[in-house]
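Researcher: We plan to redesign the surface later, but first we want a full-length starting point. Tokens attached.
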């Protein structure tokens, strides 16, 4: 599957700006991990891009709609990873792709949430600040902290190093992601 095909699928089901941004951030992180781990960046990036594609249109059937669509297209690797990107669904994490998607989804969303509450956004954001926010249950309360920890364990990476990697991947895309520093000057 090409990125263009994956983008078409995403845009067919997802209209929310925040969900589109989340899809893009997970895509970027997954592509970077694929390169780092000598895997297929297109496969990994498209998996990240599509992991929540049906969430807005079919919240009660998520992720089954996109998983079925991918299986019909012969994209079993992507379908399996997406079907298990939340550990409570009970899908085994057999491949490195499966583990990476679970490992990148929640924490990437959390890093973005941390950036959004800072005037400097991604600029200067450090893992220690993100780790501190992880301890605040009221901050981004919908993020499952156990999934964050499990994801790092499955990827066999230190959580702080994982967070630093994510920040470094997202920083060059800050403008596209609308995560550039807020100007202190009056507009």
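Model: Full-length starting sequence:
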């Amino acid at each position: 599957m090409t990125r263009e095909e994956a983008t078409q699928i995403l845009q067919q089901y997802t209209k929310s700006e925040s969900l589109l941004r989340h899809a893009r951030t997970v895509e970027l992180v997954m592509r970077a991990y694929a390169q780092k781990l000598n895997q297929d960046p297109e496969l990994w990036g498209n998996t990240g891009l599509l992991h929540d594609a049906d969430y807005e249109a079919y919240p009660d059937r998520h992720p089954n709609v996109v998983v079925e669509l991918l299986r019909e297209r012969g994209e079993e690797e992507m379908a399996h990873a997406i079907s298990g990107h939340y550990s409570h669904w009970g899908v085994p994490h057999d491949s490195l792709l499966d583990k990476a998607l679970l490992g990148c989804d929640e924490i990437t969303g959390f890093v973005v949430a941390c950036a959004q509450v800072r005037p400097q956004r991604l600029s200067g954001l450090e893992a220690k600040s993100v780790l501190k926010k992880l301890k605040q249950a009221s901050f981004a309360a919908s993020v499952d902290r156990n999934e964050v920890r499990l994801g790092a364990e499955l990827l066999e990476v230190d959580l702080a190093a994982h967070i630093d990697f994510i920040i470094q991947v997202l920083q060059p895309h800050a403008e596209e992601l609308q995560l550039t520093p807020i100007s202190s000057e009056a507009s």
